[in-house]
Amino acid sequence: MSQPRGILSQLAGGGVALILIVGLAACGGPPKWVKQGSGAMSEKDSKAFFGVGSVTGVRNEPLAWDTAENRGRAEIAKTFETYTGYLMRDYAASTTAGDFTRMSEEQNVERAIKTITTTTLSGVRPIDRYKDEKTGTYYVLTKLNLEDMKNNLEHAKELNAEVRDYVRKNADKAFERLEKEEDKRANH
Fold it and tell me: Which parts of the chain are coiled coil (predicted)?
């Protein structure tokens, strides 16, 4: 007949398992790209545009993944074309009574910003997914390879040859300028 293990040996065995579980959970933070965000980046042998899309508060998991992916695509689209309309109205008045002992002041400031992005992107692919179990936030990383984008321009029928050639010739220059601007923004 085997004897039951002592309480200390049972706790020690369970304690090791608990330490391993806590250690694994601490290492399982979000991938680097979640915090890095969207933008133009260079990889080993290529350049690409990345978009990070996210959604929280959606219980339907397939819908949440699709929403995060579409938002990742929208982040890439904003890199290429964004129209922003900005309006600010500022009103201030100061009124003093005849004897200068009573004064009335008022002010009103209004600001309105409207941002629109519309573009057709071919070749944007989801390349990674992550779900933050604590917050219920779904993240999807999307990618548009610069070479794929240039190849798609070759086949674009809606662009005339002159525009297509200009874009192809200047894509690398534009990418480098965008990358420099992203670096400046990240360092501030």
Answer: 139-166
Span 38-79, pLDDT tens digits: 988 887 778 999 999 999 999 999 999 999 999 999 999 888
Percentage of the chain beyond pLDDT 70 is 77
Q: How far is CA 175 from CA 36, 43, 171, in A?
A: 18, 13, 6
Residue 11 counted as domain residue: no
Examine residue 141 and state whether it is found in any structural domain, yes or no. Answer: yes
Rg (CA), the chain: 27
52 SS3 class: strand
Q: What is the domain range of residue 138?
A: 34-81+120-186
According to DSSP, residue 1 is labeled -
The string of DSSP letters for 118-138 reads ----SS-EEEEEEEETTTTEE
In a domain, 44, yes or no: yes
Instruction: Assess if residue 21 is contained within a domain.
Output: no
Two structure tokens written together for 184: 């400046």
Enter the pTM of the model: 0.58
Task: Give the tens place of pLDDT for each residue, 139-182.
Answer: 999 999 988 777 776 666 555 666 667 767 777 777 777 778 77
